[in-house]
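Input record, target 12 of the design panel.
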């Protein structure tokens, strides 16, 4: 039988609400980045109790993941465009390009 306290300690509950997660998931890159900066500044400024600090930390982590995900999507699109351009450049100005 698993001890509930052990399980809870191994996987701590998040302080983020579903609404906060949804909002972060919808943010454009620039807003996620700006809100991440604000979260870091709030932590650096101090004056937060432990629960508030942990909540700011979790917000910061979620914002950083959102921003990184958006950057990864852009990188994938750029890589695909470059690969397509390289493929078409191989045949540019050749008879096979005119067929």
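The sequence produced for target 12 reads:
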């Amino acid at each position: 039988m698993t001890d509930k306290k052990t399980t809870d300690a191994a996987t701590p509950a998040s302080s983020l609400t579903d609404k906060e997660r949804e909002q972060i998931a919808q943010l454009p890159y620039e807003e996620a980045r700006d809100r991440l900066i604000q979260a870091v500044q709030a932590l650096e400024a101090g004056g937060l109790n432990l629960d508030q600090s942990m909540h700011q930390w979790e917000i910061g982590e979620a914002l950083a993941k959102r921003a990184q995900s958006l950057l990864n999507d852009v990188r994938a699109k750029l890589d695909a465009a470059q690969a397509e351009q390289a493929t078409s450049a191989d045949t540019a100005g050749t008879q096979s390009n005119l067929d």
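Helices lie at 4-10, 18-26, 29-45, 50-91, 95-98.
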